[in-house]
Fold these 4 entries.
Entry 1:
Amino acid sequence: MQAKMIFWQALTPVHPGTGQDSSSVIDLPVAREAATGFPVIPASSLKGVLRDGRGLEKNDESEEAAIARRVFGYAGKKKKSDSEEEEDISQAAELTLTDARVLFLPVRSYAGTFAFLTCPLVLERLKRDQKALGLPELKASIPNPGQTDALLAQNTQIVHGDKVILEDIDLSAKVGGADALAQELGKLVFGEEAGYFVERFALVSNDVFAYFCEMGMEIIARVRLKSDTKTVERGGLWYEEAIPAETVFSSFAIGKSGFDEINRPYIQIGGQASVGRGLLRRLGVKYES
Amino acid sequence: MSLKTRAQEDMKKALNLVSSLEGENEEVKNIYGGLCHNFPILVRQSGLCQALAFSADKATGDGNRARAHQKLLEHVAAILGQNDALGAVQGADAIGYMHYTRRVLSAWVYFKRFAASVLGVHTGGHDESQQT
């Protein structure tokens, strides 16, 4: 068994929904981790999208279907070719996918347009997971910013005066305070595009990050109109939450083979596909099977 | 004295506060009920300060709309355990501000629900079936 690390970046807002959630003031909130409240894309959503419906028809005997069943698993029966009896052709998946957890959250910044926020908790968890799965760990130290600090790369673009101004939270800018970390993460996740990330990178406290994970999501109003009067129906106004474009997620694939199945330039997750929502691009290296 | 959860306290407080609107005229109830649905969205989109400032602006005067916004501000203060919502938020530091934001959003779930069930105001308008 081996593990591979996968990074996804939202190209458009993503709505990994949970159905109607009575615990939220938003009618259709995004899925969140129970312990942290951070947005998450469930592994089941990733798996379904990557499978793309292949191999689910039991009579499909194509090679593509066979590969999909082997990689993603299958549960079902099929008639034997030489009799009317059915045989169980179920098989366990060779590839295991984990939830995609938020790694960098874009937040509007007074300078530099937006900042890529992360926090020690997110990075420590990533490092822990890398170690547990036998992957190379982050080498740079993870500093611990104060509650009102933002640790930045040396070549930062998000400082105005001596502040990082994020929505309605002003943080004290510590230029160069996390330069090694920003450089390493930029190379790991974005490769040749690291510059675009590094100049916007900000390491903030866990509490500030958690606040923006709650407050930084997009809110989209939807209405349903009466056909005759074109006015809003009773109960026909609702709000959907979406994870904003530019957000970066990390996840893992674990297995013996089938890793080439995740080598897609982009995937589409969640609803409203016809208006371009839910597009995620794959970042990082390509994997052989 | 038995221990109660914050959710129990929030629900009880919300039910009492929303029910207090039953004695108001229909227009005040409708406006307030609509605010129960829309206020947390304004907080999420613009921040607690702007949401409260907007309501404070509308709360001036003697009309039904002013009355509804006055009630909203009173109820936000009750959630925060303060006499004056604007004063409390203005006086808080950044961490306190974040805490107040979360408290309002967490408790407001119940205001949304009771606006619909007690006052008969749903998103998109008043529930006419509850009119007598």
Note: Chain B is about 70% helix and 5% strand.
Entry 2:
Amino acid sequence: MAAEKMALAKAINESLRTALDTDPKVLIMGEDVGKLGGVFRVTDGLQKDFGEDRVIDTPLAESGIVGTAIGLALRGYRPVVEIQFDGFVFPAYDQIVTQLAKMHARALGKIKLPVVIRIPYGGGIGAVEHHSESPEALFAHVAGLKVVSPSNASDAYWMMQQAIQSDDPVIFFEPKRRYWDKGEVTTDAIPGPLHKAVVARAGSDLTLAAYGPMVKVCLEAAAAAQEEGKSIEVLDLRSMSPIDFDSVQASVEKTRRLVVVHEAPVFLGTGAEIAARITERCFYHLEAPVLRVGGYHAPYPPARLEEEYLPGLDRVLDAVDRSLAY
Amino acid sequence: MTVESTAARKPRRSAGTTAAKSGASTTGTKSAASKRTSAAGKKSPGVPGAPGASGPGPELVQLLTPEGERVKDATYDPYVADITPEELRGLYRDMVLTRRFDAEATSLQRQGELGLWASLLGQEAAQIGSGRATREDDYVFPTYREHGVAWCRGVDPTNLLGMFRGVNNGGWDPNSNNFHLYTIVIGSQTLHATGYAMGVAKDGADSAVIAYFGDGASSQGDVAESFTFSAVYNAPVVFFCQNNQWAISEPTEKQTRVPLYQRAQGYGFPGVRVDGNDVIACLAVTKWALERARRGEGPTLVEAYTYRMGAHTTSDDPTKYRADEERESWEAKDPILRLRAYLEASNHADEGFFAELEAESEALGKRVREVVRAMPDPDHFAIFENVYADGHALVDEERAQFAAYQASFADEGEGK
């Protein structure tokens, strides 16, 4: 299959289709994933082509979805479950944290839990409460889980392939406001490792590290800064567990400045971890403290306020200026 | 059929098959009865003749009375019709050895060899009866008290002690005996069992799955969700609830206002209440439920009405919340004594059998003691093992840091 331009949601759909096609043990499960094709149509057409046995509409019970997926994985299946929205994952949080994450270790490695949990996450689409959250740090903190988020269509396709093939449970955060962004997807290209960060834009004055929906914002910020004569490097982390600190370190040793950007609250978030680690690793290279741009320590606000809450171009550029001022 | 379960310390002779006492449910103690009156009496479930949640009720399936008399049951007798005297002695042996193992583990905890122990004392019939009903290719999802079921599945009992001694968090290969790891979070495993059973159905296999949980777990959302999923997907799973009357200090009345087996009706599958101290009835009812599952008829809820004679765990103090008389009343229904009475009365076992079993029991206790005391502490690096199947950069990094830290002691000549 040659390169094709497709939306991020369509890339995931194609990826799921490929997985269903190539591995009879792959199952899709979730609320409304069948006839409707998911509320974002990410699973559109899959039940029609693979049947109700492979693409399973479930009862409205998140713990049940994840708990039964664990059982199916124990039986040798590779379930890919959809949680409809970020804020709805919490009924399943117990199953994910106390069961899914730990079972491989508890069985001394004798059993594997190849379960992928897809979660559309983040804000920017004017949704109501519980439909715009970014809970990735809550999962990345738990040993036994892997946590990733693509920022573009190509990564969405390939990272989903890799997540499904992984023998570990993977929490797959999909940037819902980027679902309709189109990008080139080459389905026969050989991808890099799932957890490797990539330089989305090269630069020399400062590194912006981001993942998922914020990569685009950072690329726009870098382009705007370019007009002011600043050379900004944008690093797409792609994975929050593990985090590719080596790539962050390499970039920071070059640019000597780091700003981490994410939608989730800054407090105890992914950015905090990166700031701490990079300070340890690159203390003598840094010209400025690692800065963070992200959400506030407040419930995700009503839609009319989300522009204030979410890091936008100006807040990112403001942090760039603050860093460069040291 | 209906057989009244006798609860008094001096059991009345059961009238056999026709002892139905409409609506009459006996409870273990006066205190339990008065609790039911005060709790259920104000707000009746509204079902005429419906028994309270705390009494066994006339619908209790029983094939062996507390006095060891075999009673007839048209529905469930066929499932044990061909049981041989040797098999009956086998059930007795299983119960005795399981109780001996359990007692040894309790002692080992008291001696500081185990950090905790959850005793199954009193629940031997429920576990051995249901465990022996399973087939080799069936899959079992236990909670953390299913030592008797583990025994039936061929899991070496000393394997069960690793997590209680603190040398691992599970420690056996679930696929070796189709016996999953113990699950500490209440009710979680009922969903795993349901998912596994959905997989069995997808595979077109004719095996079945059985999930164990307690009366307390029946309040958990996961158990409710497992009922929903199993019914919707017609999963070949048997839910085996051991209602041992107490969830730590909370009686069944704090979990439910209707008998637990009746929950199944609301989900669209059958529920049966069986005398959990009657190993033959537990065997028969579980076989029936497993065969339903194999035939593609979906889930069943079995409520084994039994009693936890000991504490919830060795950390618990049941004297703070229940009366001695209650335990004593249940001792009259001891699952082991009643089968012994039946074996003796029917000449299925002689003194030689019991003497041999006693010796075997002592030998088991000795072996368990020795194995536990010889269990080595895990290697320090076990912390980092099997966290991930495919590896993880942070785990690798921290393992290396840990190794360097450990090595620093060697450099300093530690231990000389």
Note: Strands of chain B lie at 139-141, 209-214, 237-243, 246-247, 250-251, 271-275, 300-305.
Entry 3:
Amino acid sequence: MTDTTTVATAAPVLPTRRRRLRPGQVVAGVLRYLALIVATVVFLIPFYLIVRNALSSDLEITSPNWQLIPSKIHWENFSELFTDASVNLLQGLANSALIAVLQTAGQLLLCSWAGYALARIPYRHANKIFYAVLITLMIPPAVTFIPSFIIVSQLQWVDTYQGIIVPVLFSGFTTFLFRQYFLSFPRELEEAARVDGLGYVGSFWRVVVPNSGAFFSAIAVITFIASWNAFLWPLVIGQDSSKWTVQVALSTFLTAQTINLHELFLAAAVSIVPLVLVFVFLQRYLVLGVANTGIKG
Amino acid sequence: MSSSTATLEASAVRTTPRRPRRMKEATRAFWIFMAPFVIGLLIFVYLPIVWSVVLSFSRAQNTVTPGDWVGLKNYVDLLRPGPFLNSLITFTIFAAFIVPLTFALSLGLALLLNRVPVAKGFFRSVFFLPTACSYVVASLVWKLSIFNGVRFGLANTVLSWFGVDNIPWLATTSPPWYWMVIVTLRLWIQVGFYMILFLAGLQSISPELYEAAEIDGAKPGWQTFRFITLPQLRATSVAVLLLLLINAYQAFDEFFNLLGNSSFARPPLVYLYYTAQGNQDFGHGSAGAVILALLIMILTLAQGRVFGFGRADD
């Protein structure tokens, strides 16, 4: 798996030898682009619908005469949504942001420490502990929501931020990825640091972390997206609306149908803005991270 | 644990005077780095699982304290013909459809994209972008805009151009049009993600292999795909198949939002959610979670075996 990633980040090496194109190849090329363009349109339709409906009135959304672009752009939908007391979207967005940021930071910290220890520090029982971590990879996270709920409720953590954040921090998978990464980290750099008198902790912070920006960013982006889009766990733990994440809030409105269509679509549009920004600015890391991990996005 | 390491270190001190300091330092550093994670793992992963297994053998209604020991009764209840068994069967069929379909489409897109000289980054971004959408947001668009079952919905509007009557996508169980809604939603969200995995795999194939094949007289197209590309992608393919299979059995978000607690097309996790959260029946809920976890583990191992997971990657 590590092999694939290193290659993925490098530019694809294609033979540069130029050949005259046969007519068949030209036709194939045209067909290829045609297929890609059709697929592009299909893939973008749902995004178009979100934006279109978010800026329409309910009447236009439900009109049988399909309009590609609403005749009037209803910018006032924004102020309507954010002043609607029954929606509380701002609270949901704030909760999601807080939870996603803390979860990402916490997982990076804990899992990189553990991965580093497992990869680099010679300790006689390290292998046994590594196996104990590996075993947890076999247990699908969604299946453990009942047992985890039992512990969280015993800790009186239902309806708290820590109840949503903390249990998800101890990811065997992220630790495994960090271990694999640190195994391939050049040893010479750390040895130089040790000659300079740094211990393990010192060389981790001063040498390893500053030289691992791309990998940390990749894991951070993936974790952030997974956390922002998580649904089952926040639904189970955040039972009071003051702790709803934006996904739980949207789901509640979706199933209850108590909200205007245009407000609902605008709320959905607002909820994907942070992730679209991540996509636009950090796609390099995102692709690296996905190619590396294959975590469900 | 600490006492045994202490004695081992003490014996090491006597024999070699210089190494033990480093060993002691290493042990200490190891636990400084490892302790927070291990403690969390014990409390939030191991303890819940053990607790849940114990509960699965108990009658635990409205309580999470193991009470009456009922042996395998909860398991027998669930595996008798009934809603849980139905959902396992339904989702085995679902997996048999969605896994090959997603696999083929994401590999197809990756192959289309791999050799494209212009605008490759643009197309890749477009196909990958749905990953940013949560299943909740996608469910909203699918349920209220594309497949809302009335005339103004996108799907019905397009179908009406071809003279097809209104289809009540989610409101009818026979014919089961809701599968159309769910499968298209899942494909839209997942395909781009697996396409990236395949693209990474394709780019790691050495061009020399293709040159060698050309010299050996293999025709570009099906032959090179069959004898070079596909075998070279084996590691990626196995990973993709495993992830898809696990995801199919873990389906929850879109079913919960599109169909609620329906008696048809109810994923095992939705059933367990309502058993544990709605009925507060933690005995049956835990037993169901254990069954599902075992099923996924067995399938993962079996699939790994069939497709040679763990053999040399290249």
Note: Residues 20-55 of chain B form one domain.
Entry 4:
Amino acid sequence: MDAVGLTPIIPLLFAFALPLTSILIKGNRRVVQAYALLGTGLTLISSFALFQRAYSSDSPLIYTFGKWVAPVGIIYEVDRLGALMALVTAFLMFVIAVYSYRYLEGESGLEWYYTLYLGLEAGLLGVVLTGDAFNLFVMIEVTSIASYALVAFYRGRRDAVHAALKYAFIGAIGTTMYFLALGILYGAFGTVNFADLSAKIHDIPFPVSGNPVGEVVLASGIVLALATWAFLIKAAIFPNHFWLPEAHPAAPSPISAVLSGLVVNVGIYSLMRFLYTVYGGELVPGLERVVGGVAAVLVALGAVSALFGALMMNAQRDVKKLIAYSTIMHMGYLAMVVGAGTQLALQAAIFHMVNHAIAKALLFLAAGAFIHAAGSRDIGDLTGLGRRMPVATFGLSVATLSLVGIPPLNVFFSKVLLFDALMERSLALAMVIVLSSVIALVAYMRVLYRIWLGKPREDITAGEHASMAFVLLLLSAAVVLMGLAAPLLLQHYVDPAAAQMMDYGGYIKAAVEYASAFFS
Amino acid sequence: MSVQEFLWAYMWAVLLLTLGVALYGVIARPNLLKKIIALTVLGDAVNVMVVLIGYRFTYPVAPPILPSLSRDALGAFLSSAVDPLPQALVITAVVIGMAVNMLLAILTVQLYRLYGTLDVREIARRGGGE
């Protein structure tokens, strides 16, 4: 079977079959867990095969559903960035599924949890693999609906239901605006395929679909404004961030890890697709101004978001809320470099997206181990637990040190790249990275100090479960090793992905060649 | 300005106005149920806009049926038929919108069970917490 088409289909099939299967097995928790591990594990294998194929091939991979080629049907077009993100997503979803079993041992409804979890994975993979702007909309909605429902997993808790409603309202407005943008895009260009759109904007011939029919510059302005707004809501960039600090902490900790590590990347990835693949490279002057305006807005909002997130981290008592504000800070960095628009900036964005996903997942899972033991999210209640839970403390330390950018760990290297990329633009922007990192360091050290060296409460019996400890050690090892091997990773995986992303001509050519071979 | 052009402009003006009212409703109305209603109005306004983008100015309007299987007939048909792709996009969006609305309705019912009110000002006063 073809790894491109198969990758998002596996979790989707497993998700849809789970409610029926759970009736057959009478909701046996062990069987449900084994089923979920099988589903996420097979997806991991498939996305690894996809990853190898994308890196060994010179041009993006194409998959057509039922042989309906590019402008007529929906195609999946996978370049190296997509394959890399798919591998990171599938890896994290698998290890977080391992972690979830122990974390949710006191809760009922494990089968519904995994139905949504696998649906979420299918949506995330669809977003990074698709080559069609409308399919991107559908996949973003699949991801979003699963996320809204998972935030409300503790349906008896007021904060969870309230946060989920807030998240769902703002998310629904965002995706509706993106849908309107798609309508206008289709009205002006007569297509919603990324390769075809890019071909029309760069004046490259494409089979079947004709010339653009509408006012290209005006339509692009409206489309980019609406789509950027929608993606900024999904990525939680200031001033559209307000749902995140409530929604991420209210979810169960494994879901917080997925939301903060992977789901927010959807917005950044989609922005990259639009700004680099569709509106990348040389443009006519009118479009150049429109895209330049959007990029400037991204840089400005990203900088505000980074500083705001860092400052708010220091005002939190809830440990998960603190981590959630750190996510806003890191998404701010990503928005800044996506707006910067050079190849170096793209490398920095890709590497930081991967590093942040792994380190942030580790941080939420380690914090989750403490919360699971103490039954509270208040830093005051977690005081002194650190010495009784050495593995969780180790994970927490590695993740916090990595996220503030201590040298041998992975985020340090991507922060250096971020700094270099923003330095090309201005010193003030580069200093935002340094300043927000220092402010965040203060907040993280306060948490680490309280948990590790604080005076423990007597009434808590803290223990570490083997499966949770294993996941924490595995992710800690990943953070350390990715830091030590950063130059190699950059050379072999990040640079080729960025180079291919900048090369919109190659992206169009792959789709054109596939379509012409079919029509001739 | 012909009658059709007037109707076209009128339709867009009404839709943009509806969009504005719906956005106001979602953001400013305190009652959660009214927020959901405003959100469905927003979604429907956008759906009608997208269908309208696929519309063609032709008169008299012919049903979208191919008169005969020949190249000339096909050309004439393509220039008069309404574009079906926006309608395909809209039907997908309608189905997705239904899923979102259902989830929102269920969450609202659950919120009412927990708080005993649907007024967001009242909920904010009591705090989002336990």
Note: The interface with chain B takes residues 134, 137-138, 141, 145, 148-149, 152, 155-159, 161-165, 168-169, 172-173, 175-177, 179-180, 182-184, 186-187, 192, 246 of chain A (CB under 8 Å).
